[in-house]
Design brief:
It is a single chain. The protein has about 280 residues and is an alpha/beta fold. It has two domains: about 170 residues, HUPs (Rossmann fold), CATH 3.40.50; about 100 residues, Pantoate-beta-alanine ligase, C-terminal domain (Pantoate--beta-alanine Ligase, Chain: A,domain 2), CATH 3.30.1300.10. Helix content is about 40%, strand content about 20%. It has ten helices and nine strands. It has a six-stranded parallel beta sheet with strand order 1-4-3-2-5-6, with helices on both faces. A hairpin with a 2-residue loop joins strand 8 and strand 9. The structure holds pantoate. Pantoate binds next to strand 2 and helix 6.
Length: about 280
């Protein structure tokens, strides 16, 4: 496995790859078992002749001024070992000034899907995500790219970007990997204190209770949300809710009642300094 820090080296690697299938897993590092699973999925997609690539880049453009960019964990050596064990062929791990010119003046703006949920709480976040992912797609020119479904909104926005900007890339959304108690794996789980960690799985339990009610025939979003909130309030007084929303699975717009179209329920809550997200598809 190679670790490449510069665009020139990556471009040379891509040229040498020629017509072999290239599968990309974009990450910000601090890899956990969820990421490792994505790399394994990429390995299967690439097959024995294809190539698995991982980007590790903490993207400043997607962090707000009061967010955790400077303290976001950076641990390239440990990440590289995990990638290699999962079958990765190349890691691109550039410095910030390798990716962004000081006088850069073009970014990608998403103007619909990013107005709700995390986009409403984190202005500019998804423009930063779209901009860096478009750059990664340009560097790697992958045939496929693999993303986790924990960031459901991110995946929906990247799907839209691939469609609207004609990237010839097949996207794969992969189910969230969870701890034994249901907590979605996240690089930010390490910020949790023992009490916060103990209460954080309430997010998952709240979503499961909501789904249970949906499967039992309940269709009112307000009632479904009240069911989830009651679990969260009972089991996790520490949590500070950012949002809990029942949305159309494609447009992400809130829905009042669940009709025929697929829906997703997304939640974000602060546990101390850590902002955790999760979702469930209905
Ligand atoms: O999901 C992430 O880790 C990041 O948002 C991504 C897609 C790597 C872009 O920086």
């Amino acid at each position: 496995m190679q670790i490449l820090p510069t665009e020139n080296e990556l471009r040379a690697w891509r040229k040498a790859a020629g017509s072999r299938r290239v599968v990309l897993v974009p990450t910000m590092g601090a890899l956990h078992e969820g990421h490792v699973h994505l790399v394994r999925v990429a390995r299967e997609l690439a097959g024995s002749d294809g190539l698995v690539s991982v980007s590790i880049f903490v993207n400043p453009l997607q962090f707000g001024p009061k967010e955790d960019f400077s303290r976001y964990p950076r641990e390239l050596e440990a990440d590289a070992a995990k990638c290699e064990s999962a079958g990765c062929d190349v890691i691109f791990a550039p410095a910030v000034d390798e990716v962004y010119h000081a006088d850069r003046s073009i970014i990608i703006l998403e103007k619909s899907l990013s107005t709700v949920l995390c986009g409403a709480s984190r202005p500019g976040h998804f423009d930063g995500v779209c901009t860096v992912v478009a750059k990664l797609f340009n560097y790697f020119q992958p045939d496929d790219a693999v993303f986790g479904k924990k960031d459901y909104q991110q995946l929906a926005i990247i799907r839209r970007m691939v469609r609207d900007l004609n990237f010839p890339i097949v996207l794969h959304g992969i189910d969230t990997v969870r701890e034994a108690d249901g907590l979605a794996m996240s690089s930010r789980n390490r910020y949790l204190s023992p009490d916060e960690r103990a209460q954080a799985p309430a997010l998952r339990r709240a979503l499961l209770a909501l789904r249970e009610a949906f499967l039992g025939g309940e269709r009112s979003s307000a009632t479904l949300k009240a069911i989830a909130l009651s679990i969260l309030e009972r089991d996790s007084p520490i949590a500070r809710l950012d949002y809990l929303e029942v949305c159309d699975a494609e447009t992400l717009q809130p829905v009042e009642s669940l009709a025929e179209r697929p829906s997703v329920v997304a939640v974000a809550a602060f546990f101390g300094k850590a902002r955790l997200i999760d979702n469930i598809e209905l």
